[in-house]
Amino acid sequence: GSTPSPLRVPLRRVESGDETPRARMTPERLSLQRRKARLDEMVTGYVIAGQRDLARAALGQALAIVPQDLNSILMMGFLHLDSGENVSAHSRALEAIGLDPLCGRAYVLRGIASFFLSEFKATEEELRQALYLLPECVLATFFLARVREAQGQRQAALRLYTQALVKARAHDHAFLELGFERTALVRALEAK
Question: What's the pTM value of the predicted model, to 2 decimals?
Answer without folding.
Answer: 0.74
